[in-house]
Batch of 4 targets.
Target 1
Amino acid sequence: MIAHVDGHDPQAILDVATGTAGVALVLTRHTTAQITGIDITEAMLRRGHERVAASGAAGRVRLVVGQAERLPFPDNSFDALTFTYLLRYVADPAATLRELARVLKPGAAIASLEFSVPRTRFWRFWWWLYTRGILPVAGYVTGGREWSRVGRFLGPNISAHYRRYSVGWTVRAWEDAGLVNVGSRSMSLGGGLVMWAQKSS
Ligand SMILES: C[S@@+](CC[C@H](N)C(=O)[O-])C[C@H]1O[C@@H](n2cnc3c(N)ncnc32)[C@H](O)[C@@H]1O
């Protein structure tokens, strides 16, 4: 995903749903840009602040609380934008994509990473077994009841998202948001989906 935004020497990058700033920190190593991370959850950002400080990247990364659906930035603010594991959490993915595109400069790059459901029946079977059986148990073993709940939530949440918003629908939603050259690639045997595009000039 990073490879789709680190070209053309971006000076200002927005990472939406930045969480604990993992992607923002990777971006500091692959670019010379100033990175803004935005997330709706203050607790995630608190942990993000700690990680940024520990990495010595406080001068490069600014973290702000806010919603992807209502970004607190003017139109055409950023040279590139990343978002990971966001669209399953918003009520209106198409409107959210339009909002992400709004803050990009014309020609700027955008890329995302999201879980996905494998397309082939063979890998879908194993994915289903993993997400419904192994993940909840592994969650319980590593993090107790709370992580078991996360493990039980994830598989059904991913399935429900793609029943409503297929990959084809998502590509069209990116295009309808004013993004061009939309590309997508399955990874991890179909369990992940990387997408990329540019804002139309
Ligand atoms: C699974 S975490 C991923 C965090 C980070 N992108 C990563 O890969 O480590 C999903 C994140 O999306 C954030 N989030 C959910 N809905 C959001 C929204 N409407 N606007 C901004 N952030 C949101 C959550 O607070 C959470 O930090």
Note: The chain has a mean pLDDT of 95.
Target 2
Amino acid sequence: MKTILITGATSGIGEATVKQFLGKSWKVIATGRNEEKLNNLKSAGAEIIKTDITNPQDINNLVTHIVNNGLKIDVLVNNAGFGQFGTIEETPDNKAKAQFETNVFGLASVTRAILPEMRKNRNGRIINVSSIAGKTSMPGGGWYSASKFAVEAISDSLRWEVKQFGIKVSIIEPGPIKTGFANTVNNNVVIEDSGPYGNLVKGLTGSGKSVKGGTAEGCAKTIYRAATAKNPRNRYLVTKEAKLIKFLLIILPPKIMDYFVMRMFIPKK
Ligand SMILES: NC(=O)c1ccc[n+]([C@@H]2O[C@H](COP(=O)([O-])OP(=O)(O)OC[C@H]3O[C@@H](n4cnc5c(N)ncnc54)[C@H](OP(=O)(O)O)[C@@H]3O)[C@@H](O)[C@H]2O)c1
């Protein structure tokens, strides 16, 4: 039986991924911060380990648990992440850093913790959940995109570095997915309603509330493909929106892309 470890497993894409792999009779180690939700996953058949990926002690405990129980992690899914939206001028350093603490340094910490065993086994897969926002930015989404651009760069370097040990690395690039993500974004928008960028608030929170797009289950199926394909792709785009954006980035001159982004996100004052 193969074993998968998933971060941020307590909701959305992470939770759906737990269920997808349990349904395929994998051993699933679900990690996250919310104890009540972790217990629900335990009832569903997962092994649970409480882990805040920004907490070094939690990461140590995770490794100790894996080593003490002789667990062999075949696949690591770095899924935990959140969106912190706000303009570059109005977002204070601590908010921007918090975005990187989870989406970038948390992902790197978990990866560093799991890699030695994978190297020893000369086998393993790491699947990093990035975003189409790791390919292009948007007004008000600069820091979130910066964190996902970083995930893209780190994942590429890692793939080249660990190939020699038989470890494969793939990146998942979802477009909008109906999860708790948009609510977290809406509760964290750092733009003053009455400030110079007030018009952006409507564009961002409005678009968040009426999220169209794919499902967490659909994304989990793509993660399953990345985990089980003989030769997994470097990147998996998820949702038609992500595929369209990637296509437009390739064919449109940057200034035309600017025009569409402005039309989409900056309502007239
Ligand atoms: N939904 C989208 O439209 C979309 C699009 C592209 C990419 N993504 C990416 O997909 C991933 C999953 O997001 P989602 O859509 O499933 O949103 P979600 O429903 O909000 O799930 C995010 C998960 O990450 C967990 N998390 C956040 N910070 C954590 C930390 N420090 N330690 C451990 N767990 C932490 C959350 O736990 P708590 O419940 O404890 O907060 C939650 O379980 C994220 O990396 C996100 O950037 C999402």
Note: The radius of gyration is 19 Å.
Target 3
Amino acid sequence: MKTVMLGATGLRVHPLVYGTLPLGPLQAAVTPEEGGRLIRYALERGVNLLDTAEMYQTYPHIRAALDGYRGEVLIATKTHANTGELARAHVERALRELDRECLDLVHLHGARVADPFTDRAEVVAELVRMKEEGKIRHVGLSSHFISAIRKAAAHPEIEVIHPLINRTGMGIIDGSSEEMAAAIAESAAAGKGVYAMKALAGGNLISSARESIRFVLGLTGVHGIAMGMLSETEIDGNVALFETGVTETKLWEDLEGKRRKLRIMQAFCKGCGMCVPACTNDALQVVEGKAQVDEETCILCGYCGAACPEFIIRVV
Ligand code: SF4
Ligand code: SF4
């Protein structure tokens, strides 16, 4: 089984990180039992880092996967809190719902801010405090901003970064794929662990999945990639690709033929506009009382779904 050191954390991880976002209610909404079965399938094939977040609502899926499992599993979660108090509540909830005494990694879920260290300084301070209390092993930062990744590279308390990067740069808010790659290399050189997200731009690059994954895996400083996986076939294909670089043609042609899109159930849309500021890509607007998505700029992250009080936005 292939493993790599996650920067200077001392954590040894499989480069294929299980991204649990697509399992939860913001995306495919599979049951905890079904999601747990898929996660367990991946764990039994060597994957050992699970990526989740307060916002993803996938703790029940992870809990189901770990029921009776004896192997080592690392869990990374994220808090989108803007206050220290709320960040603590998010960590406490993760500990409770995942039935853990300590979380391996907690990220400042920084996707919506260019400078989370200024905007949310008290959140970073609270996470560091909880690390001192033994509730968190490592503190990280996830972001779609190059500027935030650069700041993280120089930040003494940030040990792991989780940046958005893909071949086309889709979803990077303040620059190009090349500039994000340079920030990632800088972070890794500074000893940060790096596992990337959105290598397939939320599914938009699915038709060139193999090329797109190889691109991100080949970047200097990338130790792993979080991949959302919804079937055993996807897990098998990714494990083989990440471990050996070998891809089975038929399996990957089938995977690359799949399409995903954002669905807004227009009949139930109240036109309130609460989803619009939730999108860092400016892909949403309300037109004649109904939310509309610009499919050219949508990276299928599903974050707008969390902001909709009517629960009518899904990545399908
Ligand atoms: S429209 Fe929704 S799913 Fe698409 S990028 Fe914006 S927040 Fe993400
Ligand atoms: S938040 Fe939901 S109800 Fe409000 S405009 Fe957006 S999709 Fe419609």
Note: The CA atoms of residues 107 and 141 lie 5 Å apart.
Target 4
Amino acid sequence: MDGVEVVVVHDARTGDLLRMPPRAWELMEAADGTRDLDGLLLAASQKGQLYQSSEVVSVLTDLMAAGLLTDGIDPFALEEAESVCDPETALEVLPFLLVCDGSGACCSAYNTIRFSNQEAERARALLPMLSDGYAKRFMPLAGSGAQKSCAAPMVNGGCSYLSESGKCEIHRVFGMAAKPAGCAVYPATFVYDGEVVRVSLGVECACVAKSIASKIGEPLVPAGATLRGDLPKDVQIGVVPNTIVLAEGLTCSREEFLRWSKVVTSTLRRWAPLEGSDLPVWSMAFSHDVVSICWQLSTTVADSNFVGGEKVRAIQPDVPPSHAEVLPWIAALANRMTAKHESAVRWRSEHDNVRATISVLTKAAKSLLDEDVLALVLAGEGANRKVESFYLTAAIHGHQLVGDVPVSLALRDRAIRILLSRAVCLLPRENELPESLATYPLPAVESVMRAQGGKEYLRDLQK
Ligand code: SF4
């Protein structure tokens, strides 16, 4: 950061972050689960660093207090992951063509850029001139023991292979095939649901919003790919679990959830005005309010008779939630964003895109505490209907509402994210916003929620 080495540990469970002095990290690199206190001291001395045992104890105590210390080695770290589905499994791909603007914004929006160990070796071999100081030092992806993947070092919040021109140096010099698999398929998402692999995408990049309804661009999978076996081997494929939590105390089977998902998709299609258009349904703005749809869908899944579809078809898609219903969510969101902003200011560079984005979103979240602003966004002010419609469609198609919170909560969370994006558009003009954020705030909200731990406001809400 600004030419200074900073080591941070991201806690993926809570979205929190621990900043470590590089000297403490040197020590912890040796804590791979095979050494006791004396062993750590010896290993550190072998690297030329002399530590007092009191210093080692102090570092370990801090990590323990942050909930980041565990005992022993991870015996499965280097095992081959079980393949989640047969190579003959069909792909169900969201028809979408992405036009990348080449600005490199997505390469500086995430805390961690994952490389497999082989991909890191290849990148270092292909671009040895970048290895002085930055690319040389890949970090462990998780923990400090043996593992198959690592995290690229970052420079002012961006991947170290991102050049000042906004281009990926690996891609520019050696082509797409030389990039890490995760970067090559970005922003596509893959999930196996017991029948097919659904291919969708995360609406986390302004290029996605700009590409909706585009008739040119790159498809989400290589041309001609119809089966799992046609995808690159290293692509990560999620799995919809056999039991899904819909609401507190209410679960359903995977098969029931798939039936619900299909009913929702066909209902959303009815709301896309197709007549007279040759655009695919995915690229059409619904003729109804997406916040209302998300909020009401949430109520339908929290009902034990949710599968039949009558309840989905009966929802009133233009009746937004009331102030009283959304206010606790907004308050928790504003608190969490304020904490995120304080944390970003403490350690991120002033030239860091994530810091600038979090600053704007924090102002927007606080603005929603104003009754008048909240009334405006609930009435649809600031809405980009096409992006909001696509956002919900992509989430349903990619089973993105199944995750670490119940589906009913995830749907309300999506409604709140949309309200936050609308609030960005209503910020007073003195807030100078980067052009992509001013025009397409929803992808920025989505990226901060998922990749920067913004979604942890849900945890605060449940306390
Ligand atoms: S490897 Fe290239 S594409 Fe991937 S994050 Fe880094 S700069 Fe971006």
Note: The mean pLDDT is 88.
